[in-house]
Amino acid sequence: MYFSPLSLNSLTLILYKIITYKKYKNTWGLYNLGSKFGLSKFEFAKRLSMKLGIYNNNYNIKNINDIVDTRRSKNMKMNLKNFLKTFKIKLPTLSEEINKFENLK
User: Fold this and answer.
1) What total of structural domains would you count in the chain?
2) What mean pLDDT do residues 41-68 have?
């Protein structure tokens, strides 16, 4: 399953820009917001745990569709095209978001 989350810090900074910049004053609508270039949840967990120095190989990978009867999309990444076109704010990649955790070791 692929997704494209943002850290709370990044989300806060982006929303602050939108709320405080006068050029966005009359902009309204619903927009998807997430990181660019998402990852699978497995790859995300692996990279984050390696960055934090807590990675191990003691796990089993399961597909959610093998566990529950409800079918779920395997691609939950956000479509950012409208957000980028409207606000022209650079969004971080998921790898950049993971790298922010380096100082937490």
Assistant:
1) 1
2) 86
